[in-house]
């Protein structure tokens, strides 16, 4: 069986989560997210981000989180500004468009938006009422190609959104890896200060499933619980989500699992650098996009699973490799041996 570096949710869940689920299995709790575990987890998150007024909701997955937030927050004539590699653009089967919202896609080589691009798109749609009106800016941390926004970049986007009357929403599917990355200067409290809404991804950080949607402005969350229920996303056994987040936010486990994934990928990154192989993007997180020849791809694919990400030219393609909280040293070492023996 091949070793998979295809995604960071191939494994089940961190043992601490499985143990917590087992130990509490027979304890009776209210349903629909009103359980003690969910309330305790929300309290820990509010404390971590320094925002006691934040409204927090647990849902099962990232696409669901994006669809719920954007469907709830936008009126029918309002649209979204995002970069062309945004997850909502190419990896969610048109979920956002399906509920009636246009996505304005800005070109980007590094997976990030700039204030200049936001101003450009926000200024294009002035033929009221004949054109949609941009209302929300969507960014991801880490980005779809593993890059990071700096605190200065986040502040600049936030200020731009404030000036233009736009909401700022951050997709945090791999937020653990971002917060734990070398060179990252964005902290939990910055997320509360410089976004209107963000979500904390756990599916890709040791949980069986689950994302925590955080509304930094409580008023934006008015009636959101009704919307969750209406869209079929309110779990009767909401305790399963709450308990997992409670476990992840005790003893800094969430950040530690992100750090493990990043550390394993750093070893792989260094091996490709030693072979003189270049990358599609400059990343210090758990995603890597080496640009390989077709022969090199064939050599790797004999023993490993990964995504073919982007064709670069007739002879080269960028692949995507991902490590997780559970990636073992032996798996990395097996890959390193093959990388060392790659031929052009």
Automatic annotation (TrEMBL):
Q: Which InterPro entries match?
A: ArAA_b-elim_lyase/Thr_aldolase, PyrdxlP-dep_Trfase, PyrdxlP-dep_Trfase_major, PyrdxlP-dep_Trfase_small
* The keyword Lyase belongs to this UniProt entry's keyword annotation: no
Q: A Gene Ontology molecular-function term?
A: lyase activity
Q: Give the keywords, sorted.
A: Pyridoxal phosphate
Pfam families reported in the protein's UniProt record: Beta_elim_lyase
Q: Which residues form the Aromatic amino acid beta-eliminating lyase/threonine aldolase domain?
A: 15-231
GO BP terms: namely: amino acid metabolic process
Q: Which cofactor does it need?
A: pyridoxal 5'-phosphate
Q: What family does the database annotate?
A: Belongs to the threonine aldolase family.
Name assigned to this protein: L-threonine aldolase
Lineage per the UniProt record: Bacteria, Pseudomonadati, Bacteroidota, Flavobacteriia, Flavobacteriales
